[in-house]
């Protein structure tokens, strides 16, 4: 319906309002025409955002059209595209969330030969704290490190308790439901409560291809514990030496 038709119907409705028996069908048609006209105006914003693949803006504009002007031809026209935009906008927000879970650091260091070097690291905390010493649950961190002298390594860090892996141990790694066993070792150091995953490249490849990764490890307090990480937001380009 064109704006001219809508204006005509509105004028007709106003004229009939002064009569004793106005035709309700004409008034309803005029109201519907007005809603459709308003919906078409709002839908221009949706069409522009959708065409630019700006899914979050398209989702917001689509919500206005489909909720405020439900039942209009314009709302029906964009319904399928709105659902698509809404789904993609949700996926984008989720991707930003999991990407924000990772921290990347570039730290200047001196090499053993006294030269200037750079240590790179990518780290992430387990999505839930883990009890490791019989007390309260505390954060567990997974770190990938690239050092000019020490090379590449992957390790877990505890805040309390200790790993029971000084002579070496086997770690159960599960990525998106698929289990794998990797070797681990606890270095004899007091600098940090850390345990290396000896197949660091294997763990890196697993983390880069998975959405969720869990590592089961033995602790001195007895038994094993499991730390789970939402790794789907890992950016491999931040650690260019890892492949």
Textual characterization of the structure:
- With about 240 residues, this protein is an alpha+beta fold.
- The protein folds into two domains: about 5-95, no CATH class; about 100-240, Immunoglobulin-like (Sandwich), CATH 2.60.40.
- The chain has five helices and nine strands.
- The protein has helices spanning about 5-15, 25-50, 55-70, 75-100, 200-210, and strands spanning about 100-110, 115-125, 140-145, 150-160, 170-175, 180-185, 195, 210-220, 225-230.
- The chain has a nine-stranded antiparallel sheet with strand order 1-2-3-4-7-6-5-8-9.
- Helix 2 (about 25-50) packs parallel to helix 4 (about 75-100).
- The longest helix has 28 residues, at about 25-50.
Taking the sheet with the most strands, its summary is: 9 strands, antiparallel
CATH class of the largest domain: Mainly Beta
Residue share in helices? 25-40%
- CATH third-tier fold name of the largest domain: Immunoglobulin-like
What is the alpha-carbon Rg in Å?
30 Å
**Element order: H for helix, E for strand:** HHHHEEEEEEEHEE
Strand order of the largest sheet: 1-2-3-4-7-6-5-8-9
How many domains make up the 3D coordinates?
2
Total of DSSP H or I helical runs spanning 4+ residues: 5
Residue runs with pLDDT of under 50 for 5 or more positions: none
| Cα separation of the termini | 60 Å
Strand percentage: 25-35%
Mean pLDDT: 92
Q: Structural class of the secondary elements?
A: alpha+beta
- Global shape: elongated
Organism: Lysobacter firmicutimachus
Protein name: Lipoprotein
């Amino acid at each position: 319906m064109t704006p001219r038709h809508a204006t005509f119907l509105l004028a007709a409705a106003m004229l009939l309002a002064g009569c004793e028996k106005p035709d309700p069908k004409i008034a309803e048609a005029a109201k519907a025409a007005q809603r459709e006209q308003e919906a078409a105006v709002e839908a221009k914003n949706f069409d522009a955002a959708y065409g630019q693949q700006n899914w979050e803006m398209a989702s917001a504009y689509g919500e206005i059209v489909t909720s405020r002007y439900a039942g209009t031809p314009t709302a029906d026209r964009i319904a399928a595209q709105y659902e698509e935009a809404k789904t993609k906008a949700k996926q984008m927000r989720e991707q930003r969330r999991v990407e924000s879970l990772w921290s990347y650091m570039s730290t200047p260091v001196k090499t053993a030969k006294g030269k200037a070097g750079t240590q790179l690291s990518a780290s992430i905390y387990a999505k839930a704290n883990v009890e490791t010493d019989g007390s309260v649950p505390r954060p567990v961190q997974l770190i990938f490190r690239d050092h000019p002298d020490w090379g590449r390594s992957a390790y877990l860090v505890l805040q309390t308790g200790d790993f029971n892996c000084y002579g070496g141990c086997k770690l159960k790694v599960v990525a998106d439901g698929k289990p794998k066993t990797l070797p681990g070792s606890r270095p004899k150091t007091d600098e940090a409560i850390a345990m290396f995953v000896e197949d660091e490249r294997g763990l890196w490849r697993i983390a880069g291809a998975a959405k969720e990764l869990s590592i089961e490890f033995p602790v001195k307090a007895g038994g094993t514990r499991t730390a789970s990480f939402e790794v789907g937001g890992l950016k491999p380009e931040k650690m260019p030496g890892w492949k």
